[in-house]
Records
---
Amino acid sequence: MTGDAIRAALVRRLRLTSNISEDDIKEIEALPISVRQFPAEMPVVRDGERATDCCLIADGFCVRSKTIANGKRQILSIHIPGEIPDLMSLFLHVMDHELSTLTPSTLGFISHETLQKLHRRAPNIAEMFWRDTLIDAAMFREWIVNVGQRPAPSRLAHVMIELRERLRIIGRVDGDHFEMPMTQEQIGEALGITAVHANRVIKQLRQEGILEFHRGRVTVLDERKFLELADFDDRYLHQSPTL
DNA sequence: TCATTAACTGAGG
DNA sequence: CCTCAGTTAATGA
């Protein structure tokens, strides 16, 4: 995949989630990007590392996570093509968590220097990145509520629906199914439960006729029950651009 | 390797 | 007594 295709992934998302102008699109299309391929389950930026670039996902799924002293890992967020998961490293240079791939991924790296110059030159783009970062924080608040307060089946349904609604924006929901390329171990790490319990929860949703989950693909069988279980309100995603 | 399930255990309501 | 969830272990795809 070329730099052009990677910039296109970002532009596509910004067109759908913000009021980006044609001039600003030209700015983004002129950004120097270095492209790198990563295999599945590979760290991209490690906890404690000093980042010099921000990472734009062109293709693949990534997660942000933290690992505690006893080795247990908490997955904090899931990221999809068109997103810049470590945008905050532009101002918080030393990573306080890890970014890693879930699937083989094509990533574009934009230097902090380039982005800082862009911020000064194009305040509208700076505002869009501000907005992205605030939405990121809103998603973390929702994640905390999810893991801290919802029962496990609702936790799973909520994470699934959030992922689906974000995939929908980039045109990656196909009818009643969408990709969630995670093992049950990883789902457990996202929900704060063991892999065995994640399996029990999936089994329960399957038996209740709500969904099917197989090889990283979710198929929704009963949308009404699914929504009710997830207790999902998309307000926190702030999807429509401010008008 | 990952998914599945049973059996047992304990916390907590 | 019931539900939820961790642990362990066996087995299947």
---
Amino acid sequence: MPTDCSNCPLRRLPGFESLSPEELEFMSHFKVGEIDVSPGQAVVIEGAKSPQLFTVLDGMGVRFRTLEDGRRQITNFVMPGDFIGMQDAMLDDIGYSIEATTPMTLCVFRRSDIWTLFRNHPERAFDMTWLVCSEEHFMGSALATVGQRSALERVAWALVVIHDRFRQLGRVDNGIFSFPFRQQDLADALGLSLVHTNKTLAKLRDRGLASWAEGVVRVFDREGLRKLAVMDEVVRKVRPLI
Amino acid sequence: MPTDCSNCPLRRLPGFESLSPEELEFMSHFKVGEIDVSPGQAVVIEGAKSPQLFTVLDGMGVRFRTLEDGRRQITNFVMPGDFIGMQDAMLDDIGYSIEATTPMTLCVFRRSDIWTLFRNHPERAFDMTWLVCSEEHFMGSALATVGQRSALERVAWALVVIHDRFRQLGRVDNGIFSFPFRQQDLADALGLSLVHTNKTLAKLRDRGLASWAEGVVRVFDREGLRKLAVMDEVVRKVRPLI
DNA sequence: CGCCCGATTGAACTCACTCAAATACTGTGG
DNA sequence: CCACAGTATTTGAGTGAGTTCAATCGGGCG
């Protein structure tokens, strides 16, 4: 039985904007269903044209691009609350794939409803655009990281960013949270080899900044990581939830 | 005297969508002015909150992020037709700067008009969102390039992308076009050192694929560059012009 | 028990970086 | 008109951060 938008568990989190009952009513209408995806399965396939949009209700995955020879660049980790598929709906070709890492549950929207939404619900259209801008903003940071930072800085940067995202989802307890991805995924996100990513993580552990073992990340010193990564502090605000 | 939208020189190019006279009339109204920026001057400053949006009418520049210690990542080259400032308008902090490389002329829009536009001109809001999606799409490609490709592949990739953008602006004659940037800029865009960028360009020249001297780029073999860069062909379509 | 997958560590290599110096061009001032 | 300073490009030489190859270890599972 699909979750009703007016009873959305994500909406209760402090990190997401709240909506009026009427707006929630409309969202329920906009949502046409729910699907479950198992680990390893594709949600969106590069090149294919998906007629759907999704909001991640639960579970995590990776968004990535592949070169023809198999190299893979993870462009972002996909987490609950993320709105997926806007580019596909606007542009005609999809430039990336999304694959589930844990079991995922997604709210499904119809691509063809986007236009009506722009026409009749400018607030929601505005929110969607906000989310795309936010995603672009993140990609810019990631690009700067991969292009300019050293391996140590990159890993430190990633840990801070991931930690903050998890915290916004209320999943961090005293710097500790369980992180379902492999080191290979982090390597592919940072443009590093698996071996070097591992060795770099060991360095951070030795310095007492953070550790990652058996699926659990422990951030001992966020401030130290942030400084090491040469990144400035950002105040994360509430964001819309589609 | 500012250019009137109904007489916009960019709009005549085949790469941009055309608008009805009524729509053009509205755009003229939306546009509140025009400004000129000299080479080296900032258009948008990181951290500052600009109350304005711009469309590049003429001239070129660079969009970049800087780390506190001065390292610089160019996230895109800014060219005529580009719409600037959407993130600033949506998000509250600006994550990048834009600096003019050549003299630039920009159409100016009021940030506060965005909301009315979403409410009353859904088609234009849709176009703006399209442009943001397109920009994000590009950033994804750039990220995959910097994260996964070798120096030779990166430079080849950049030349193909740049060549195609210039072609869409009607500035390419038989693979030849004048490119106003420095090699340092390309290096900062690709996450390479200036020296290595230069040596890599020399390699491409030796292979007869492309050359870049005295501000003029010559793409002798676009197909060869594309293959070398392990990139797949993309059909570039008409895009909206705000 | 044996197999597969992910994490970890060691060793050798290499691509790209830094340092350094030469060339060429442009604008400025004497 | 020339000297000079500043900037961009080019090339050589040596170094090093990160890669690839390889082997080991440990846990989960059929």
